[in-house]
Amino acid sequence: MTNKHFHAGELRLQNHAGMRAKIDVMTQHLMRDFIPDQHREFFEELEYIFLGTVDQRGLAHASIVTGSVGFASSPDPKTLIVRTGPRQDIREFDALDIGQPVGVLGLDLSNRRRNRMHGRISAIDEMSININVVQSYGNCPKYINLREIAERNQSSGRIGITHTAMLAPVDADLIINADTFFIASYLRDGSNAPYEGVDVNHRGGQAGFISVDTASQITIPDYKGNDLYNTFGNLLLNPKAALLFVDFETGDQLHIHGSASLIEDADKVSRFPGAQKLLRVEITGVTRKTASTALIWRFIEASPVSPELRPRPQGD
Prior knowledge:
This protein has one domain: Pnp Oxidase, Chain A (Roll), CATH 2.30.110. It has helices at residues 8-16, 20-30, 37-44, 169-176, 230-237, 266-269; strands spanning 48-54, 60-66, 72-76, 79-83, 101-108, 113-124, 128-139, 146-152, 159-164, 180-187, 197-204, 211-214, 217-222, 240-246, 253-263, 277-290, 295-301. The chain has 316 residues and is α+β, with helices and mostly antiparallel strands. The strands form three sheets. Strands 9, 10, 11, 12, 13, 14, 15 and 16 form an eight-stranded antiparallel sheet that branches.
């Protein structure tokens, strides 16, 4: 079962949550096949955006792209142009071509504004991509921790890149102390329907909300959101997940690839205050990039709606 906006995985979770009727009404005003003028202006004022892509191996990627104000532009409501800079030998962009899907998250950490879209590449050159809009919609500010840019023009070269099969202690420390990460997922079913494509989104909570179970497994609480279940719906049908952790104080990036599974067991979920479900990621690859983000952020305050943490019992 599918409809214009949602595929079978999303519909299953929406039905399970008892939200289908409400979502059908909501999407009449929420889901658009163009970018509203207010969102176009928002994208053009950003100095960073997040892209969701799929590489030649079929792996999803969540990436941060930075630039001066205006590096993302919308010359018309159906088009977003992103000046990515050179992409040669960058794995997450190695399959970009005309017609390929791209997910876009516009996020301003300084005011919690968040807008999402996904589309397909309509034009491409060595320094930029033009994305034809398929779906565009706004998101609520829940769980976004406030930060402001403290430094600009840091080195954005791919310096100190390491690849491992599992988490090193330094990687685990970054995740354990994280209050924010970004997740990419995708669905390809050959339908060319609006729901088919790549999704990238923000996840946040109190620092320490993610559990590092082992060097090859992490567990993430899922708090109540907009009930669209774009990410979880994709992962139900295609468990390939990509997670991006940014060290906002150093510019380091941690990229995780893995197979994601949804946990709804009440006892396990109860160990994470405020969680409705859990997402468990079995890690298949880790990439650390040292000082590779061109911006440094200063923490301002935590989201007031993130659940408080408590010590969790050991074991599964």
